[in-house]
């Protein structure tokens, strides 16, 4: 419901998996992520999907997981353009 909610990484994984089915192992993504450790796990899954599809975009996990509006907005805009 808010851009800051994207900090869990779940939506990013879902977007990439929709565009490239099978690129992210959705069974490994923690859908109910509430802690920063779970967020980091989800971004590792996303990074693995980026590597599989040879997407060179740098994921600034530290900034994205801090629930920053600006960084999450920039990253979701990248995902939209991609």
TrEMBL record:
Location of the Calponin-homology (CH) domain: 1-82
GO molecular function annotation: microtubule binding
Descriptive protein name: Calponin-homology (CH) domain-containing protein
Organism the protein comes from: Emiliania huxleyi (Coccolithophore)
